[in-house]
């Protein structure tokens, strides 16, 4: 039997489409390009960083960018460890609070019947269309009126409201049968016990996805430090990375150090996603997002 006929027959028997495999492989290769670029960029000498036309791969790899970064760290008025500490505290606090509030709100919308619930959930869905830049002025006014300027709360609280987190977790909770909660209530469990001991363990993949989305959003956020922080000692690591070149890609000064810190900022994102990628895939499949 010819090879092509054998492949087609195998595809029919297994239900597997090799054309789709080829398309998905191409998409996967393209999606890896930014990662390869960040890694190569961190090891490019200054001459290659400003080469025209630009080169995707590094020709003469060097560690000078990391040496320059260490030099900049030593000259900084605020210790580099302080920026790392601030980013770690803000990120962990934001992620934990986001998971807590998103899951609690999703539980209320999914399993409780109260006045205006459908309208309020529609507002949350509509808010998905707004980018952070569209609400930056409103956020600043609210934080200013609350007297939170130059406090860690200004970096954490705006990140807690994650509409996509409420939406994803609710989609999973909607699939849980009401009989499961009714049985728990008959056994004496109150709403909080049912929520933490029954509902959350069954939607942990959605919670894992929300954790990834929240972590990536907070860890890379430099704008909040720029807008809300006055004290340099309370600003975060992405802000420090942005100040190396004053946000200008055409600036020659510290461009190598900026490329090096971009790689350092990327590594935690990659590790978190590598650990939690199964949760994200299962969430996207089961939530109806294609």
From TrEMBL:
Main location group: membrane
Membrane-crossing residue ranges in chain numbering: 21-43, 83-107, 119-140, 152-173, 194-219, 256-276
InterPro entries: MetI-like (IPR000515), MetI-like_sf (IPR035906)
Name of a matching Pfam family: BPD_transp_1
Intracellular or extracellular location(s): Cell membrane
Membrane topology: Multi-pass membrane protein
Protein name: ABC-type glycerol-3-phosphate transport system permease component
Lineage of the organism: Bacteria, Bacillati, Bacillota, Bacilli, Bacillales
Keywords in alphabetical order: Cell membrane, Membrane, Transmembrane, Transmembrane helix, Transport
GO cellular component, one term: plasma membrane
GO biological process, one term: transmembrane transport
Residue ranges of every copy of the ABC transmembrane type-1 domain listed in the record: 84-276
Family: Belongs to the binding-protein-dependent transport system permease family.
């Amino acid at each position: 039997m010819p090879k092509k006929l054998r492949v087609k027959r195998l595809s029919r028997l297994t239900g597997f489409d090799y054309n789709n495999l080829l398309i998905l492989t191409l998409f996967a290769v393209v999606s890896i390009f930014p990662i390869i670029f960040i890694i190569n960029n961190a090891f490019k000498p200054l001459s290659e960083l400003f080469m025209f036309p630009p080169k995707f791969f590094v020709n003469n790899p060097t560690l000078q960018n990391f040496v320059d970064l260490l030099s900049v760290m030593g000259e900084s008025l605020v210790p580099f460890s302080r920026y790392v500490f601030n980013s770690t505290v803000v990120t962990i606090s934001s992620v934990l609070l986001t998971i807590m509030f998103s899951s609690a709100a999703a539980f209320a919308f999914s399993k409780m019947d109260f006045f205006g619930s459908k309208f309020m959930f529609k507002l949350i869905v509509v808010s998905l269309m707004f980018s952070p830049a569209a609400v930056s002025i409103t956020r600043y006014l609210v934080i200013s009126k609350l007297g939170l300027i130059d406090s860690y709360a200004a970096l954490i609280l705006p990140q807690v409201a994650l509409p996509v987190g409420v939406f994803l977790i609710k989609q999973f909770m909607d699939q849980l049968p009401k009989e499961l909660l009714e049985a728990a209530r008959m056994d004496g469990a109150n709403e909080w016990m049912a929520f933490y001991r029954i509902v959350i363990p069954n939607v942990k993949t959605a919670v894992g996805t929300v954790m990834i989305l929240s972590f990536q959003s907070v860890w890379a956020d430099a704008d909040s430090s720029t807008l809300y922080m006055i004290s340099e000692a309370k600003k975060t690591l992405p802000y420090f990375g942005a100040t190396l070149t004053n946000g200008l890609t055409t600036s020659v000064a510290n461009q190598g150090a900026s490329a090096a810190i971009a790689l350092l900022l990327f590594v935690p994102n990659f590790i978190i996603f590598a650990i939690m990628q199964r949760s994200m895939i299962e969430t996207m499949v089961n939530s109806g997002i294609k």
